[in-house]
Design a protein that fits this description.
There is one protein chain. With about 625 residues, the chain is an alpha/beta fold. The chain folds into 3 domains: about 120 residues, no CATH class; about 230 residues, P-loop containing nucleotide triphosphate hydrolases (Rossmann fold); about 250 residues, Rossmann fold, CATH 3.40.50.300. It is built from 21 helices and 20 strands. The strands form 4 sheets. An 8-stranded mixed sheet has the order 7-14-8-13-12-9-11-10, with helices on both faces. A 6-stranded parallel sheet has the order 15-20-19-16-18-17, with helices on both faces. Strands 1-2-3-4 form a 4-stranded antiparallel sheet, with no helix packed on it. The radius of gyration is 25 Å and the shape is globular. The relative contact order is 0.10.
Length: about 625
C-alpha cells in the first residue's frame, strides 16, 4: 500500500482558470498533468472547455459552465508532453485506483468507477473520430496538406496495418489513437514518399517517423553488420537520447537495435555498439561527422533519413555538417524532415535534400504562434533589478513547483544557480557541462530535488520534463522563435502555464515581433514594449514598479552584457562536432578568446554568417 501511495497521483498546484469542480492531478510516476472531475469521476488530459449554460434551467445536476470534450483520458496527448520523450512500460497504469465510490479516488485511462468496483464502458477518441471523413478530420485537427495524391489520415491504430506487436507496444504505452501529425504522416511515409512535416514540438512527431521506419526495416531485412538502415539527425544530445529511448521502447518486440551518437561522451562505447551492428542510428551532426572521418561507420546502406528539429539544427550552424553527412547517404532514399517553424533557410535545404515531398502542416505554417494556454507576462525590467524581480516571482509559486529560468550566457546560469540554490533548490545546465553533469541536473529537476532549473537554450527544446509550471526569460533570446520554444516548456497537453519575460532596451529590436506573438495569443502587451516596436527601439518612458516584497538581492551580475566567453566553444550543444566547436584545452590561452579571435569565424562554424556580425555570432556561441 505504501508503494502505491508513493507512485500514485497527487494534486497539482491550484489553477485559478480551472473550472470547478475539476482538479489538476500529477502522475506520481511520470509527472503527467491531467484533470479529474470528482463529481463524475472522469479523468482526462484535455482541459475542460466552456459551454453556454442550459437554456431551460432544468439541468439534473449542478453545472460549472464547462464541459469535457471527451469522457476519459486521451492517451495520445501523452506524446505531446514528451517532445519525443519516454517512460517505462508501467508509466500509464495506476494500481489500486479506488473502487470505493465514497473515496472518490482519481482514476485514469478511461476506467471510471461505476460504484461496484468495476470499470465503466470506455469509448476512446478513436471511436468518435473513426466515422469522420478525411477532410473533416483534417479540419478538426487543423491539418493542411500539399502534394500529389495525398492519402487520407489513419484515424485509428487499426487502420495503420502495423503488426500486432507494434500495436501492442502502443497500447501498453497508453495510446488510444494517433496524434494528428502521426495520423497524417504515417500513410504518406508508408508509401515511401518524402515528407516535410511542420508541427510544434511535443506533437508526437517522434513516433510519426519511427514507426514507419520500423516497417521500412521489416521490408528490407538489411544486415545490421553492414551498417544502419535508418538515420535520424537531431540538434541536441538530450533530444537524441530521448529519440533512442523511444526507438528501443517501441522497437523492442520487433528486435530493432538502435544506438545514439552524440558529443560530450566517450566515443569508445558508441563505436563498440556500431561494431556489433545496429539498425537505427540517432546522432547529432558533429559527433557523426567525427566518426565518419574516423571511418568507423558506413552510411551506404541508409535508405530512410530523418532530420528532426531541422530549424533548430540550422539555427545552430549545422548546415555544413548536415550536407556533408547527406553526401555519404545514397541518393535513392526516403527523406523525412520535421520542423517546428518554416523559415526560408529550412525551405532552401528541404528543396535541396528532398524529392517531390508532401508537406504536412499542423496549425499555421507561415505564422509563428505561441500556445494560448500560456499566460505571458512581459515586463520591462532594468538590468540591476532582474534578480530581485526573479526572486519575487519564485517566492510567489507553490513550494516545489518546477520552474525553468533561461539565461543568455553560461556564466550567468552558473551565477544565478549559486545565488538561488540555498533558498529555491536551483541547478544549472548549459553546453559547457559534461553529459554526465547534464544528465544528473535533469534527473534532479525531474524528481523535484532541484525544482528550479537555470539554463541556456540547450533546454529550450526536446527535454523530457513534465509539469513545468513557470518559465522565466531572465534574458530575452536572440529571436522570437526561441522565445516561443522557451515558453513552450510549460502549458503542455491542454494544461495551463505561466511565462515571465524580462525585456530591456537592448532587446528592442525584437519588440515588433514580440508584439505580434503576444497579440496572436490574446495576451496583454505592455505599453513600453509597444512604444519600442513603434519607434524601432528605446526604453519605455517609465520604469515598471512591483510590490517590494521581502528580502532579495538587488541586481545579479553578468547577464547578456557579460559576455561569459570563458570556456570557448566547448560543446555548447553537441560537444563533439568537429567544424562546429573547438575542443577544450588545458592551455590557459585556449580557455579564453585571445588566440581564437585572430582566426576567421568560418573556422569555428563552417556556415555562412547570414549577415550577422562577428560579435553577434560570438554572443550566440557563448550561450
Amino acid at each position: 500500500m505504501a508503494a502505491n501511495a508513493v507512485a500514485g497521483p497527487r494534486y497539482a498546484p491550484d489553477d485559478p482558470t480551472l473550472p470547478k469542480p475539476w482538479r489538476g492531478l500529477v502522475d506520481g510516476k511520470t509527472g503527467y498533468l491531467y484533470f479529474w472531475n470528482p463529481e463524475t469521476n472522469v479523468t482526462q488530459y484535455e482541459k475542460p472547455k466552456p459551454v453556454a449554460p442550459p437554456s431551460n434551467g432544468n439541468s439534473s445536476r449542478p453545472s460549472s459552465g464547462y464541459v469535457s470534450s471527451s469522457v476519459q483520458v486521451q492517451p495520445s496527448y501523452q506524446e505531446q508532453q514528451r517532445d519525443g520523450g519516454y517512460g517505462n512500460d508501467n508509466d500509464d497504469k495506476y494500481t489500486g485506483a479506488g473502487s470505493d465510490e465514497k473515496s472518490q479516488q482519481p482514476v485514469r485511462d478511461g476506467v471510471t468507477s461505476n460504484g461496484g468496483g468495476g470499470p465503466a464502458v470506455n469509448h476512446g477518441p478513436a471511436d468518435v473520430e473513426s466515422g469522420l471523413s478525411a477532410e473533416a478530420y483534417r479540419r478538426r485537427h487543423e491539418i493542411s496538406v500539399s502534394g500529389d495524391s495525398v492519402p487520407a489520415p489513419f484515424m485509428t491504430f487499426e487502420a495503420t496495418g502495423f503488426p500486432s506487436e507494434v500495436l501492442r507496444e502502443a497500447t501498453q504505452a497508453g495510446f488510444s489513437a494517433p496524434t494528428p501529425i502521426q495520423a497524417q504522416s504515417w500513410p504518406i511515409a508508408m508509401q515511401g514518399r518524402d515528407i516535410v512535416a511542420i508541427a510544434k514540438t511535443g506533437s508526437g512527431k517522434t513516433l510519426g517517423y519511427l514507426l514507419p521506419g520500423f516497417m521500412h526495416l521489416r521490408r528490407l531485412h538489411n544486415s545490421s553488420q553492414m551498417g544502419p538502415t535508418v538515420l535520424v539527425l537531431s540538434p541536441t544530445r538530450e533530444l537524441a537520447t530521448q529519440i533512442q529511448a523511444e526507438a528501443l521502447k517501441f522497437g523492442r518486440s520487433s528486435r530493432i537495435s538502435c544506438t545514439c551518437l552524440y558529443g560530450g561522451a566517450p566515443k569508445g562505447p558508441q563505436l563498440r555498439e556500431l561494431e556489433r551492428g545496429v539498425d537505427i542510428v540517432v546522432a547529432t551532426p558533429g559527433r557523426l561527422n567525427d566518426i565518419l572521418e574516423m571511418k568507423k561507420v558506413s552510411l551506404r546502406q541508409i535508405s530512410y533519413l530523418v532530420l528532426d528539429e531541422a530549424d533548430r539544427m540550422l539555427d545552430m550552424g549545422f548546415e555544413p555538417q548536415i550536407r556533408k553527412i547527406v553526401n555519404e547517404v545514397p541518393t535513392r532514399r526516403q527523406t523525412l524532415m520535421y520542423t517546428a517553424t518554416w523559415p526560408k533557410e529550412v525551405r532552401r535545404i528541404a528543396a535541396d535534400l528532398l524529392s517531390n515531398p508532401v508537406q504536412v502542416n499542423i496549425g499555421s505554417a507561415d505564422e509563428l504562434v505561441a500556445n494560448k494556454s500560456i499566460t505571458q507576462h512581459v515586463e520591462v525590467v532594468p538590468y540591476m533589478e532582474k534578480q530581485k524581480r526573479l526572486e519575487q516571482i519564485l517566492r510567489s509559486q507553490e513550494p516545489g513547483s518546477k520552474v525553468i529560468v533561461f539565461c543568455a550566457t553560461k556564466k550567468m546560469c552558473d551565477m544565478l544557480a549559486r545565488n538561488l540554490n540555498r533558498q529555491f533548490g536551483a541547478a544549472a545546465i548549459h553546453g559547457d557541462k559534461s553529459q554526465g553533469e547534464r544528465d544528473d541536473v535533469l534527473n534532479q529537476f525531474r524528481s523535484g530535488r532541484s525544482p528550479l532549473l537555470v539554463a541556456t537554450d540547450v533546454a529550450a527544446r526536446g527535454l523530457d520534463v513534465k509539469d513545468i509550471r513557470v518559465v522565466v526569460n531572465y534574458d530575452f533570446p536572440t529571436g522570437v522563435e526561441d522565445y516561443v520554444h522557451r515558453i513552450g516548456r510549460t502549458g503542455r497537453a491542454g494544461a495551463t502555464g505561466v511565462a515571465y519575460t524580462f525585456f530591456s532596451d537592448q532587446d528592442s529590436k525584437h519588440a515588433s515581433d514580440l508584439v505580434k506573438i503576444l497579440e496572436g495569443a490574446n495576451q496583454q502587451v505592455p505599453q513600453e514594449v509597444r512604444d519600442m516596436a513603434q519607434r524601432g527601439g528605446g526604453m519605455g518612458r517609465g520604469r515598471r514598479q512591483w510590490d517590494s516584497g521581502s528580502g532579495g538581492r538587488g541586481g545579479g551580475q553578468g547577464g547578456r552584457s557579460d559576455s561569459g566567453y570563458g570556456g570557448g566553444y566547448g560543446g555548447r550543444y553537441d560537444g563533439g562536432g568537429r567544424g562546429n566547436s573547438f575542443r577544450k584545452s588545458p592551455s590557459p590561452d585556449r580557455q579564453g578568446w585571445g588566440r581564437q579571435r585572430s582566426r576567421s569565424p568560418e573556422r569555428f562554424d563552417q556556415a555562412p554568417s547570414g549577415g550577422k556580425s562577428f560579435h553577434q555570432m560570438m554572443m550566440e556561441r557563448s550561450r
